[in-house]
Specification:
Elements (H helix, E strand, L loop, with lengths): L1 H29 L7 E4 L2 E3 L1 H12 L4 E8 L5 E9 L2 E7 L10 E14 L2 E9 L5 E7 L2
Parallel strand pairs: 1-3
Antiparallel strand pairs: 1-2, 3-4, 4-5, 5-6, 6-7, 7-8
Length: 143
């Protein structure tokens, strides 16, 4: 009887450890580290090298694309996809998860992406956009 009780206790403990590990794996699947896009947490930028590669490719007039997630102050995600082809930037901004935004997907076409440095702030802005818009892609502190 004691052996049966000890065996049952060991199986119970082993099962708990497996569930704990499964929970960790589930959490990792929910919140994977994204290395395929630029992430902007209100000025704290991850994967900035992807932006630099995108800029290099556009300078060489290569067809390329860039994906980015920008977080609002409230924590909502706004998804950006920028495609560069034949000297033109096609921009898609998906703000459907932003409770304070228009909750739709907006598309823009622009002819120029500029880099403006002011002190320790670097702004990347789309200019010459259809409709006369100027659109801020990203602002980076102390690049």
């Amino acid at each position: 009887m004691k052996k049966l009780l000890a065996t049952g206790l060991l199986l119970l403990l082993a099962g708990c450890q497996n569930n704990e590990q499964a929970g960790t794996i589930e959490q990792q699947e929910k919140d994977p580290v994204q290395t395929d896009r630029v992430i902007d947490h209100n000025g704290q930028v991850e994967n900035l090298e992807l932006l630099h590669q995108f800029l290099k490719d556009t300078d060489e007039n290569k067809q390329t694309s860039l994906e980015m997630t920008r977080y609002t102050i409230e924590g909502a995600q706004i998804y950006w996809k920028v495609e560069f082809e034949e000297g033109e930037y096609n921009i898609e901004v998906d703000n459907r998860e932003d409770n304070f935004g228009s909750k739709n997907i907006e598309n823009y076409q622009c002819d120029k992406l500029s880099k403006d440095v002011t002190g320790s702030l670097t702004d990347y802005n789309f200019e010459s956009c259809e409709g006369g818009y100027e659109i801020n892609l990203l602002s980076v502190i102390s690049e």
